[in-house]
Amino acid sequence: MIKYILILLVTLVFITGCGENATSPDRNDSEQLITHLSLDYPNPSSVVTTISFALAEDAWVKLEIFNIEGHRISVLIDEELQAGCYQVVWNGENASSGIYIAKLQANEYKYSKKITLF
What's the whole-model pTM score? Predict the structure, then answer.
């Protein structure tokens, strides 16, 4: 049972709605590729954090987690995605308490946000 739960935690989920906690990046609406961004909830988190984003058009997406020293500790997505809303669950079970950075790149656009594990 635990094996199936862990597999589920690293699965990319396509969703139909973007949620109320999503925010728009600071760019002109006509130029936005990432239209909604909510890179962590709950934050702070004890172990599991959900990262949500929406794409206005198809794009190559890379979502990575870095520790505060800048070392990459996980690559959650590195593939072409269709326009739409997505959620990814990061299980920080093997990560120690502290501050991490979630870096989301869609084509040439890059966004990052702090995640705190306690």
Answer: 0.73
